[in-house]
Known about the structure:
InterPro entries: FecR, FecR_N, Ferrdict_sens_TM
Protein name: FecR protein
Domain FecR N-terminal: 15-55
Transmembrane segments: 93-111
Oligomer: single chain
Shape: globular
Radius of gyration: 22 Å
Mean pLDDT: 81
Strand content: 25-35%
Domain FecR protein: 123-213
Amino acid sequence: MDRELRTKPTEIDDTALEWFTRLRGGASAADRAAFERWVAASPSHRQAFRRVQSLWSAAESPGARVAQEESENLSAYLDAMDRTKARRKARKRGVATIIVGLAVLGGAVALERPNLFQDMRADIVSARGERRTVDLPDGSTVLLDADSALAQRFTNGERRVVLLRGGAYFSVVKAAQSFVVEASSGTVEVLGTKFDVRLSNDDTVVTVAQGRVAVTSPSMQRALVEPGQQVRFDKIGIGPVRDADLAASMSWHEGRFVFYQARFADVIGELQRYRPGRLVIASAALADSRVSGSFTLDDPDAALESLRATVSFETYSILGRLTVLR
């Protein structure tokens, strides 16, 4: 069988991204020869690489412009925060470090379209501030949280999706084949049920509303989760199955976020999905502080003010794109 017929489109896209990154980083003559062979092997390879080039070109020009603006304005802003010479020099060094980091990541692409390449791998993407319901090929439905991405793998009778970013609520119709959700290299497997899957920086949270799901962590530990229960897993293993407050855990379906003794950085991460620009926490102590509360996700600025009443912090906005919390 021809290799192209056995290669999934998403695998071709992934390979195109890898070649694009390698070529921009200074490829050797051998690398370039291998790339030419890969492109010549199939028209789909050339098309995938052109898509990567097109998306990068669309983001690179505004990215360079914003990076320059951020450099100038962030330097001036931090100078104004503290006029003492020693601290001003220290902050300028910090600014230089930030700008170098942004340049390595593609300038302001990291600010305006931080998930550009990840979105290329997805079949379904929700924008910031958008909750989106989508019908899947088998008749199941998925409600995507804001700023989330999902890839479909419905081939040869298989029912499989990959949650690349964010959160999703699945309503799965019963069928002979299992329905599998891949998330952070772990899996959630069901025949027919309703459940939440949410990715965070460190782990994945699965909450079951109806039916039963089998959760397998990247380390191959397994757990069965019943209705009203919740479990977390990460690359190391899977945590204990606990009773869940379904109303709080799934309040985002209706546009609210309810949390109790949650890490401040995690709360800001959820709020970020509904707010343009980038929120940056400049204090480790602030990031690790614990907060409780409830707010509407449709008014993220009011939510920030609500958090300020609980935890004392100041906000500094730069060009409307970057907000520093300290």
